[in-house]
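Input sequence (291 aa), recorded before submission:
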Amino acid sequence: MRLVTITDLDQDKATKGLLIERAMQLGKWYGDFKATDTGAYNYEVDVGGERHRAPGVHASEMKCKRMMVYSIMDYERRPVSAAQGDTNMRMRFASGHAHHAMIQNDFHRMCERFNGALTFQDEVRIDPSLGGAAELWGMHSSCDGEFTFWHDQAPYLRIGVEIKTASHLEFDKLVKPHEDYSKQTCLYQKALDLPLMWIFYYNKSNSNWTNSEPPYLFQFDDHLWTTELEPRIADAHVHARNQVLPTREEGRYCRWCPFAWDCQPPSLLATMRGHGPSRTAHRPGALRVMR
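Predicted structure, token format:
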């Protein structure tokens, strides 16, 4: 009985269901761990940055095909200017990195209690050396983590985990994973041959999280991969090979896109005309003179 690869999803539903039920316990185990976690610990926050990304397909860039083509062609990555950029999002990214490191550290320490029956690996690298789809399409990414269940030193269940932070307003509106995140994690699953994925939303306001249950725990979506994602990647490679940029797919992400200096999306011009993000700091109050 095992659920280690995508092919294993084709097994008998009853057997597969038992393994999925085991995966669904991760959230409960995490809650139990945090309830009794009184030990001293520390963790390191690693912020990789944009400039050192390898040329190729990156899961976080799937939202804009033009961005994908720039990356495949290994265009220079430059920071957006202060007048055009989104300072608030830069701060949110920094906060997100810190929360990721905290939760990954928790998962490592939680698994220590299982004496080798459950392990966690953080920042699971994706690159062409993996073979398969990663080699075929030149993928370069990093999945936040992978849980593995073991029996007699052999793996029998693997679950990927992707950590996302949200404000309380965003968190309270959740009914399922955001579409962009479902696509991003589908690429991770295909590249890493992961049958299951848990999108772990963390509420920055009250520290709630989404448990390892549907719809936040889900199987690899072969239909999404074969009908939407792989054709999109293939088309981006055709554009890159022909040195032709596809049509812009503008969004808020243009304000921190490392290729905006060349793309020059109209939304950035609107930002410079005063329609960009609101101020990020309160104006100082007058000094009250005490008598």
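Checked by second reader. Strands lie at 118-126, 141-151, 154-166, 196-203, 217-219.
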